[in-house]
Amino acid sequence: MKKAALFILIMLLTGLTGKAQTAGTTLKFGYLSYDSVMQSMPQYAEMNASLAELRSQYEAEQKRVEDDFNIKYEEFLDGQAAFPKTILQKRQSELQEMLDKNVAFKKESQRLIAEAEAKALNTLKAAIEAKVQQIGTERGYAFILNTDKEALPFINTTMGDDITADVAALLQQP
Protein backbone atom coordinates (compact mmCIF):
# COMPACT_ATOMS: atom_id res chain seq x y z
CA MET A 1 0.00 0.00 0.00
CA LYS A 2 2.79 2.43 0.92
CA LYS A 3 4.71 1.53 -2.23
CA ALA A 4 1.61 2.13 -4.33
CA ALA A 5 1.04 5.52 -2.69
CA LEU A 6 4.70 6.44 -3.19
CA PHE A 7 4.49 5.37 -6.84
CA ILE A 8 1.39 7.52 -7.39
CA LEU A 9 3.09 10.47 -5.67
CA ILE A 10 6.15 10.10 -7.90
CA MET A 11 3.98 9.89 -11.00
CA LEU A 12 2.07 13.01 -9.99
CA LEU A 13 5.28 14.85 -9.20
CA THR A 14 6.79 13.82 -12.50
CA GLY A 15 3.74 15.19 -14.28
CA LEU A 16 3.78 18.39 -12.24
CA THR A 17 7.49 18.88 -12.79
CA GLY A 18 7.08 18.43 -16.53
CA LYS A 19 4.22 20.94 -16.65
CA ALA A 20 6.07 23.38 -14.41
CA GLN A 21 9.21 23.20 -16.52
CA THR A 22 7.30 23.76 -19.76
CA ALA A 23 5.66 26.79 -18.17
CA GLY A 24 9.12 28.22 -17.43
CA THR A 25 9.08 27.60 -13.66
CA THR A 26 10.90 25.01 -11.65
CA LEU A 27 9.25 22.98 -8.96
CA LYS A 28 11.19 23.34 -5.70
CA PHE A 29 11.10 20.87 -2.87
CA GLY A 30 12.88 20.19 0.37
CA TYR A 31 13.75 17.04 2.22
CA LEU A 32 14.93 16.19 5.69
CA SER A 33 15.43 13.41 8.17
CA TYR A 34 12.91 13.82 11.01
CA ASP A 35 14.90 11.35 13.11
CA SER A 36 18.13 13.34 12.76
CA VAL A 37 16.38 16.59 13.58
CA MET A 38 14.60 15.08 16.58
CA GLN A 39 17.78 13.56 17.96
CA SER A 40 19.53 16.94 17.73
CA MET A 41 16.89 18.60 19.91
CA PRO A 42 17.76 19.23 23.58
CA GLN A 43 14.19 18.21 24.45
CA TYR A 44 14.88 14.76 22.97
CA ALA A 45 17.64 14.12 25.50
CA GLU A 46 15.40 15.44 28.28
CA MET A 47 12.58 13.16 27.11
CA ASN A 48 14.86 10.12 27.11
CA ALA A 49 16.16 10.96 30.60
CA SER A 50 12.61 11.44 31.88
CA LEU A 51 11.44 8.16 30.35
CA ALA A 52 14.47 6.34 31.75
CA GLU A 53 13.64 7.67 35.22
CA LEU A 54 10.00 6.64 34.84
CA ARG A 55 11.05 3.15 33.69
CA SER A 56 13.42 2.76 36.63
CA GLN A 57 10.67 3.79 39.08
CA TYR A 58 8.29 1.20 37.63
CA GLU A 59 11.04 -1.43 37.57
CA ALA A 60 11.89 -0.73 41.22
CA GLU A 61 8.24 -1.14 42.18
CA GLN A 62 7.97 -4.33 40.15
CA LYS A 63 11.08 -5.66 41.89
CA ARG A 64 9.61 -4.76 45.29
CA VAL A 65 6.31 -6.57 44.66
CA GLU A 66 8.17 -9.52 43.17
CA ASP A 67 10.33 -9.76 46.29
CA ASP A 68 7.20 -9.56 48.48
CA PHE A 69 5.63 -12.36 46.48
CA ASN A 70 8.77 -14.51 46.74
CA ILE A 71 8.87 -14.06 50.53
CA LYS A 72 5.19 -15.04 50.86
CA TYR A 73 5.72 -17.99 48.53
CA GLU A 74 8.70 -19.26 50.53
CA GLU A 75 6.69 -18.93 53.75
CA PHE A 76 3.89 -20.88 52.09
CA LEU A 77 6.27 -23.64 50.99
CA ASP A 78 7.85 -23.85 54.43
CA GLY A 79 4.52 -24.20 56.27
CA GLN A 80 2.55 -26.01 53.60
CA ALA A 81 2.80 -29.46 55.23
CA ALA A 82 1.66 -28.15 58.62
CA PHE A 83 -1.26 -25.96 57.47
CA PRO A 84 -4.82 -27.18 57.83
CA LYS A 85 -6.67 -27.42 54.52
CA THR A 86 -8.59 -24.14 54.92
CA ILE A 87 -5.44 -22.13 55.74
CA LEU A 88 -3.61 -23.79 52.85
CA GLN A 89 -6.41 -22.81 50.45
CA LYS A 90 -6.50 -19.27 51.85
CA ARG A 91 -2.75 -18.84 51.38
CA GLN A 92 -2.91 -20.29 47.87
CA SER A 93 -5.64 -17.86 46.91
CA GLU A 94 -3.65 -14.96 48.45
CA LEU A 95 -0.61 -15.95 46.40
CA GLN A 96 -2.68 -16.24 43.23
CA GLU A 97 -4.23 -12.84 43.89
CA MET A 98 -0.77 -11.30 44.43
CA LEU A 99 0.47 -12.88 41.24
CA ASP A 100 -2.52 -11.60 39.25
CA LYS A 101 -2.06 -8.09 40.65
CA ASN A 102 1.66 -8.16 39.84
CA VAL A 103 0.97 -9.19 36.24
CA ALA A 104 -1.71 -6.50 35.90
CA PHE A 105 0.64 -3.88 37.36
CA LYS A 106 3.38 -4.85 34.94
CA LYS A 107 1.04 -4.57 31.94
CA GLU A 108 -0.34 -1.25 33.16
CA SER A 109 3.12 0.17 33.76
CA GLN A 110 4.19 -0.84 30.25
CA ARG A 111 1.09 0.84 28.84
CA LEU A 112 1.70 4.02 30.83
CA ILE A 113 5.35 4.21 29.75
CA ALA A 114 4.39 3.71 26.09
CA GLU A 115 1.69 6.39 26.45
CA ALA A 116 4.16 8.84 28.03
CA GLU A 117 6.68 8.16 25.27
CA ALA A 118 4.09 8.65 22.52
CA LYS A 119 2.92 11.92 24.09
CA ALA A 120 6.48 13.23 24.38
CA LEU A 121 7.33 12.21 20.82
CA ASN A 122 4.18 13.86 19.50
CA THR A 123 5.19 17.10 21.20
CA LEU A 124 8.62 16.97 19.57
CA LYS A 125 7.14 16.07 16.18
CA ALA A 126 4.72 19.01 16.43
CA ALA A 127 7.66 21.37 17.05
CA ILE A 128 9.51 19.94 14.04
CA GLU A 129 6.39 20.15 11.89
CA ALA A 130 5.94 23.84 12.75
CA LYS A 131 9.52 24.63 11.67
CA VAL A 132 9.15 22.54 8.51
CA GLN A 133 6.00 24.48 7.67
CA GLN A 134 7.84 27.75 8.33
CA ILE A 135 10.77 26.86 6.08
CA GLY A 136 8.51 25.45 3.37
CA THR A 137 6.46 28.63 3.26
CA GLU A 138 9.46 30.97 3.41
CA ARG A 139 11.31 29.18 0.62
CA GLY A 140 8.29 28.49 -1.57
CA TYR A 141 8.63 24.71 -1.64
CA ALA A 142 5.93 22.70 -3.33
CA PHE A 143 6.47 19.97 -0.73
CA ILE A 144 8.95 18.66 1.83
CA LEU A 145 9.75 14.96 2.10
CA ASN A 146 10.88 12.90 5.07
CA THR A 147 13.84 10.70 4.06
CA ASP A 148 13.64 8.34 7.05
CA LYS A 149 12.95 4.62 6.89
CA GLU A 150 14.18 4.22 3.31
CA ALA A 151 11.08 5.97 1.95
CA LEU A 152 13.08 7.72 -0.76
CA PRO A 153 15.83 5.62 -2.27
CA PHE A 154 16.90 8.48 -4.57
CA ILE A 155 16.72 12.25 -4.46
CA ASN A 156 18.23 14.44 -7.14
CA THR A 157 19.96 16.99 -4.94
CA THR A 158 20.13 19.51 -7.78
CA MET A 159 16.34 19.73 -7.75
CA GLY A 160 15.73 19.72 -3.99
CA ASP A 161 17.25 21.14 -0.83
CA ASP A 162 18.28 19.19 2.26
CA ILE A 163 16.77 21.24 5.08
CA THR A 164 17.70 18.91 7.95
CA ALA A 165 20.36 21.25 9.37
CA ASP A 166 18.14 24.31 8.85
CA VAL A 167 15.23 22.81 10.79
CA ALA A 168 17.59 21.61 13.55
CA ALA A 169 19.10 25.12 13.81
CA LEU A 170 15.66 26.73 14.06
CA LEU A 171 14.70 24.33 16.83
CA GLN A 172 17.83 25.28 18.80
CA GLN A 173 16.71 28.91 18.95
CA PRO A 174 14.75 29.97 22.03
Which stretches are poorly predicted, pLDDT < 50 over at least 5 residues?
Answer: none
Work out the helix count.
5
- H and E order: HEHHHEEH
| Mean of residue pLDDT values | 88
Biggest β-sheet: strands ordered side by side in the sheet: 2-1-3
Number of strands: 3
The fraction of residues in strands falls at 5-15%
- Overall helicity: over 70%
Characterize the largest beta sheet: strand count, sense, and whether it forms a barrel: 3 strands, parallel
Quickly give the structural class. Answer: mainly alpha
Please compute the radius of gyration using only Cα atoms.
28 Å
Task: Give the N-to-C terminal Cα separation.
Answer: 40 Å
The shape, in one word, is rod-shaped
Features:
174 residues; mainly alpha; three-stranded parallel sheet; 5 helices
Can you describe what's shown?
The chain has 174 residues and is mainly alpha-helical. The chain has five helices and three strands. It has helices spanning 2-22, 34-40, 42-79, 85-139, 164-172, and strands spanning 29-32, 143-146, 160-162. It has a three-stranded parallel β-sheet.
Topology:
Blueprint: H1 2-22, E1 29-32, H2 34-40, H3 42-79, H4 85-139, E2 143-146, E3 160-162, H5 164-172
Parallel strand pairs: 1-2, 1-3
Helix pairs in contact: 2-5, 3-4, 4-5
Task: Summarize the structure in short.
The chain has helices at 2-22, 34-40, 42-79, 85-139, 164-172, and strands spanning 29-32, 143-146, 160-162. The protein has 174 residues and is mainly α.
